[in-house]
Amino acid sequence: MIEKRYIELMNKELDGANTPDESAALRSFLASSEEARRMYDELRGVAGMFAAAGEVTPPRDMKRTIMAAIAGREAFRGARRAERRRFLDVLTVLTPRKRVACSFAAGAAFGLAALIILLRAMPQTGELDRKDLYGTLAGRRGAEDVIASESVSIETADVSGRVTARYLDTSLAVALDLDAPQEIEVVLSPAGRLPVEGFGAPSCGAWDIRTDTAGVAFKAASGCNFTVTFRDEAGAHPPVNITVSSGGVRIFEHTIVQGRK
Amino acid sequence: MNEVKLDNKAFDSIVEEYGKAIFNAAFRIVNDYEDAMDITQNTFIKVYERLDRYDPSHDIFSWLYKIAVNEAITVARRKSRTVELGDETCVQFRNPETEYMQNETSAHLQRALMELSLDYRTVLILRHFHGLSYEAIGGILGIPEKTVKSRLFTGRTLLRNSLLAMGYTP
Q1: pLDDT value of position A134
Q2: Number of CB pairs, chain A paired with chain B, less than 8 A apart
Q3: Phi, psi values for residue A16, rounded to 5°
Q4: How far apart are CA A121 and CA A133, in angstroms?
Q5: In this complex, do B170 and A50 lie within 8 Å of one another by their Cβ atoms?
Q6: For residues A65 and A99, which has the higher predicted lDDT (pLDDT)?
Q7: Residues 195..234 of A with a Cβ closer than 8 Å to B: which?
Q8: Could you tell me the CATH number of the domain that includes residue B144?
Q9: pLDDT, tens digit, for every residue of B25-57?
Q10: Which of A126, A143, A163, B10 is the most interior residue, by most CB within 10 Å?
Q11: In whole angstroms, what separates CA A174 from the centre of its chain?
């Protein structure tokens, strides 16, 4: 059995990597071991085989084939580059002023598209959609359960529509869907002086809202959907008085009471 | 685009100078004439396309070898997964082996090389056919010099054993 370090010395000797001392140590060892001499000769024979094997002859037209492949590849890439350039050339043909106009038009189109996407992504509003209410407290109450819902219809010469009061766990939401040919003033007064918590006006162009401890009053220029919420922490669910006036003249008055028409 | 890239003449001379060596390295690793040709072609195409990334302070020869050897190893691994090598298919030639191999020794050596794993085969080929130093082989294969030595020494011994088992005394 030949020691590993001598096998390493044999290999290094074949690679010309031994120091003079290592070479001397190897020679001395080889002189003392026939097995080692045989192995070294065989390893040297293996190394010699590589030299004797020579080169494999590549195809005669290898260089031409490679250069043709590169040229073909380059032509293909050139065609693709040209295609891209042709597209961009449209801009270079335009005068600077037209280029600015094109850029502006493209920007405007992009902006419009983005706006449409944003608007479509927004939640659609509707009657009594409490998500539209202003104020964080009102938003929080959007998750509450509706305990009772009472409605009253208004049909007069000056105003028509419907008022709905929804009693929630800790709030009262009053929705008005009114249509009036002239400006009207609406006053909502819940009994027990509930504080106003929020307003929602998804389809109103103008309003003039005033609040006090007695309730809320607002003006609407024409047909309008309004939602007003009052805080009702105690869950008293009080009656709500509604008055509608036009030109200083009261044209409708009603009190909604939970459980009673 | 790089200035070198535009100079077809310069590239032509690179193919001329290193084409044969690259082809030989590829052939010895994959043992297939057609695959060796494909590897050589792909190597030069890759080099051509990446010339702008070439650092002239480095040896172009090592760079070429690195690409070629990696290509060849990929092909050899793919083939080893799909082809069971036997005595009949061990040396792949289009025609009698003497057409491409200079002599019988070359064919014996190739057959014995194919008995070795890719790690040992590649190191032996780079060292003995191409005369590369431990350091250069390590750079091409991305392994430490110590590993190169270890693979080379073991590979040589395994190759000797293979040849002896074939009845060929080196």
Answers
A1: 47
A2: 108
A3: 70, 30
A4: 19
A5: no
A6: A65
A7: none
A8: 1.10.1740.10
A9: 999 999 999 999 999 999 999 998 888 888 777
A10: A163
A11: 35
Gap from B92 CA to chain A (nearest CA, Å): 13
Complete edge-to-edge strand list for the sheet that includes strand A171-179: A146-155, A160-168, A171-179, A224-231, A196-200
Identify the pLDDT of residue B89: 43
pLDDT single digits (tens) A134-178: 444 445 555 567 778 888 888 888 888 888 888 888 888 888 888
CB within 8 Å: A42 and B170: yes
Q: Which of A11, A48, A56 minimises the CB distance to B101?
A: A56
ipTM: 0.80
**Whether pLDDT at B5 is above 50:** no
Residue bearing tokens 């890719």 = B118
CB A179 within 8 A of CB A161: yes
Q: Closest to A42 (Cβ–Cβ): which among B20, B134, B160?
A: B160
Of B19, B110, B127, the CB nearest to A63: B19
The single-letter code of the amino acid at A81 is R
Q: How many domains does chain B have?
A: 1
d(CA B118, nearest CA chain A) in Å = 17
A7 touches chain B (CB under 8 A): yes
Say what the pLDDT of residue B57 is.
79
Report, at the CATH architecture level, how domain A130-256 is classified.
Sandwich (2.60)
